Amino acid sequence: MLSRLAGLSRPVALAVCAVPVLALFAVAALAPLPFALAQPGLTANVLGSQGGTKIIEITGAPTRETRGELRMTTIVATGPSADVGLGDVVDSWFRTDRAVMPREAVYPSGGSDKEIEQHNSAEMAESQDEATRAALGFLGESPSKVKVSLNLADVGGPSAGLLFSLGIIDKLAGNGDGGDLTGGRSVAGTGTISADGTVGPVGGVALKTQAAKRDGSSVFLVPKAECSDAKSELPSGLQLIPVTTLKDAVGSLRALSEGGTVPAC
């Protein structure tokens, strides 16, 4: 190839060399890429209802009427079998309301669409159990006496754990002084939770802050390890509060309601 190109003028040689390069770009533009495209998803007030059913139902202990909102947040992503092309990636890359994420970061379990849906549903169920244990443990309530049912359809994964725990606490005890844990505000957030109250990181935090602001929240609870991600596309007027434990979250919300100092990212 080099010997044949040696006798060509420079413009002609460059044109000939450009042919395989352009062909590679054409293939790349048409071939599916190993990415998922995500955008802000729904939010749900765990203190309220969905489809006429209370999201948090408690028996075995008196509950209180609550004001304000505790909104769990989600992202919506292309499915694991969806074809994502170069044009889709380039378009989403330059938009603040879209994110390009490695497919394995969104769907780490692999498998078919159905298998992944089942996996996410199982994670949600486990997260709800952990959230209940964390909340009741924080309040010193016995899970053998107090029964909690969490009802939230069409949402998978473990990232609503923190908000479920806070919702249970607010319904049972409020802020501990007769008031609401939310202080009457719309508080949103995200984070996994373990039975001992440890808050863990999740994905898509920057998109979730946008969903929270869109749906009227003024405060967003974020796992401390993800502060920088949350700040990257933070909507104006949305206050970030970093948390590492359920105790942190409750303490910060109490301080916020009392006009005290709360941590910031």
Q: Could you explain how this protein is built, in words?
A:
By secondary structure, this protein is an alpha/beta fold. Helix content is 40%, strand content 20%. It contains nine helices and twelve strands. The chain has helices at 2-6, 10-30, 86-93, 103-106, 113-139, 161-172, 205-214, 227-232, 246-257, and strands at residues 35-45, 49-50, 53-54, 56-59, 69-77, 99-102, 147-150, 186-189, 192-193, 199-200, 219-223, 239-243. The strands form four sheets. Strands 6-1-5-8-11-12 form a six-stranded mixed β-sheet. A hairpin with a 2-residue loop joins strand 2 and strand 3 (53-54). The chain is globular and about 55 Å long. It starts with a helix and ends in an 8-residue tail after the last helix. Residues 1-8 and 12-31 have low confidence and may be disordered.
What is this structure's SSE topology?
Elements lengths: L1 H5 L3 H21 L4 E11 L3 E2 L2 E2 L1 E4 L9 E9 L8 H8 L5 E4 H4 L6 H27 L7 E4 L10 H12 L13 E4 L2 E2 L5 E2 L4 H10 L4 E5 L3 H6 L6 E5 L2 H12 L8
Parallel strand pairs: 5-8, 8-11, 11-12
Antiparallel strand pairs: 1-5, 1-6, 2-3, 4-7, 9-10
